[in-house]
Write a structure and sequence with these properties.
Layout (H helix, E strand, L loop, with lengths): L5 E6 L2 H12 L7 E5 L6 H12 L13 E4 L8 E6 L11 H7 L9 E6 L12 E8 L6 E7 L3
Parallel strand pairs: 2-5, 2-6, 4-5
Antiparallel strand pairs: 1-7, 3-4, 6-7
């Protein structure tokens, strides 16, 4: 599948959200950063589950809110791990040093050898990689239908 530099999708169900994550996850390679943004309950973690499925990494993928980051090892030799990060706790710290925070976690994985998927990271994580995928999830009022808008920084 050719990589689209941008796109939009209507996501009526959680399975549709997960399927979009899998579609986009199939395009990712080591060193990529994915920035997931949107309000609480928009489906960021569900999308991350789809990305993890496409990358064939160990699970389960759950929200890393209270641990900041989780490493999901690749099941295939030579494939990148997925580092799932939640920046929600650091939002009030405008001067947060993301690289320093991740390094202090001793993740036992080099960021250049992994795909880093960050929830709530807009405006903070883009400096981790020249190539990043921004995905914004929105949910319309009084409906479960979500809309995803994504854009690669460098196609």
């Amino acid at each position: 599948m050719a990589e689209q530099s941008a796109g939009t999708a209507e996501l009526p169900t959680a399975e549709d959200t997960k399927a979009l994550g899998a579609k986009l996850g199939a395009l990712l390679r080591a060193g990529d950063v994915v920035v997931l943004s949107g309000p609480l309950g928009a489906g960021k973690t569900v999308l991350a589950k789809g990305i993890a499925e496409a990358m064939d990494v160990d699970g389960p993928v759950t929200s890393p809110t209270f641990v900041l980051a989780r490493v999901h090892r690749a099941r295939r030799s030579g494939a990148p791990a997925m580092i799932h990060v939640d920046m929600y706790r650091l939002l009030d710290h405008a001067g947060a040093d993301l690289l320093g925070e991740l390094d202090s976690l001793d993740l036992d994985t080099d960021l250049a050898d992994a795909v880093v998927v960050v929830e709530w990271g807009e405006g903070l994580v883009e400096r981790l990689s020249d190539r990043h995928l921004d995905i914004r999830l929105e949910r319309a009022a009084e409906t479960e239908v979500r809309t995803a808008i994504w854009r690669w920084s460098r196609p």
